[in-house]
Queue: 2 jobs
Job 1
Amino acid sequence: MTEKKGHGSETAKKANAEASHEGKSKPRTSSPAQAELGKKGGKSKRDIVPPFSADQTPDGRYIVVRGRLWRRQRPDLEPAERDRLVHELMDGRRGVKAAKRTDNVDAMAEARAQVDRAKRGLGERGPVWWTDGAPDQNRRLVENTSYAEWYADLSEQGGEP
């Protein structure tokens, strides 16, 4: 069975040209997974890269990522408002990236403020969105919170270790 290869990125083409010039016998090639991306009828990145998954606490307030609690979005948000805030969040993150590239301090401050506004609107920062008086345990290691026993049981059942 012959392995399919992609057309190669500009970076790969440049590396191949340099390798050829240096007389190397194995120029850079795409992996089979990379070769499938972008092909008509080929696989999408979604088919190749497994989706991110995180465990959600029983009360739905947090997700657990690498053993740390992260506050979830407010469940009472209307879908249109949620979409608007997520779009604002992603625009802000792109702004942070662009400001880092150009070392623009003012643009960085504005982009970070935009990210903060969006996260507060989504309920991921700022006052908690639940009303039972339970404390905020955001960004804490699960083992040091009231969810420690639940998480230990989850780990034993094959959940996130």
Job 2
Amino acid sequence: MLSIQILQYEFLGPIPLSEWGPPMEKLVYLILSRNKDKFDMVYVGDCQKTDEKSFFTSHEQFKCWLQKSGSEQSLYLAIFPMFESSEEKRHNVIQKIIAQYKPPCNNDDISEPKPDYVVRVSDDSDKDSDDSDKDSDDSDKDSKELNKDE
């Protein structure tokens, strides 16, 4: 069986998506588009458990995969089994892969959660920087006073 290295993870495959059959459980999967001898990552997702033959063809991003690959024949699947893994662990792997490879059909997955996070961080850091400015002003005064004593 072929395998493909993505970051530090070794995925099994790729195999033509049309050859895949259930069951499938606790894994992260890649949808790849074959372009002559190379594969482009189109989507990364995870599966808790499925027995559905239509798991991929009925996926909400299936149309996007087809758009990016041109045809269902060009779609390939690679899997990274994570037995006994929590959903959180799988999502962690997915986020790392998205950050590195930015698969085009994962856009929705990244853009939604981030804005809140960024806003919160900038609010906190503003408060922190105000405080630290005050501190540094005080310490300047202290050092000037010391110099007067000398």
